[in-house]
Design goal:
There is one protein chain. By secondary structure, the protein is mainly alpha-helical. It has three domains: 51 residues, no CATH class; 63 residues, no CATH class; 34 residues, no CATH class. It has five helices and six strands. The strands form three sheets. The chain has a two-stranded parallel ribbon. α3 runs antiparallel to α4.
């Protein structure tokens, strides 16, 4: 698993991945690199990469295009990139419908991506909510761990 060097959050996340996958028999070796882009462009071999994709506006077609664009080139078939480009070129409701359908097909057949966290700028939590676990991978409250008090 490639991670950026000198990134404490990345290192912590990589160790979580390593621990969790070892529980099902997958050995993860963590390799910190100074610049992720350079080794990937030069053909370095990694099986896992902790990356991120973000857009600042709600558009599913743009998000899919950005997510596929952020994946190392050799990890995605050219035909997949062409499908993404075609959907990104659509407009209106057809664009959003086609993007959702494409995302479903991509995750089921072509692209191995796991979303495990989302940035949050603030959280408001009802006092009745207990079992509050803050995780570095989720960038805030772990919703799956919450419970009701009392």
């Amino acid at each position: 698993m490639a991670i950026p060097a000198h990134c404490d959050r990345c290192t912590e996340t990589a160790h979580l991945v390593q621990r969790d996958l070892s529980a099902i028999g997958i050995d993860v070796r963590i390799r910190a690199v100074a610049e992720l882009d350079r080794p990937l462009r030069r053909g370095a071999k990694f099986d896992l990469l902790d990356g991120e994709t973000e857009i600042l506006y709600p558009d599913s077609a743009s998000f899919v295009a950005r997510a596929i664009g952020d994946i190392p080139p050799g990890w995605v078939q050219p035909a997949v990139r062409q499908k993404v480009d075609r959907v990104a070129g659509l407009e209106g409701a057809d664009r959003q419908t086609a993007a959702a359908a494409l995302a479903d097909r991509l995750t089921a057949r072509y692209v191995n991506v796991v979303a495990y966290g989302a940035y949050q700028t603030s959280q408001f939590i009802d006092p009745r909510i207990g079992c509050r676990v803050l995780t570095p991978a989720a960038y805030g409250l772990d919703l799956a761990a919450t419970c009701l008090n009392g």
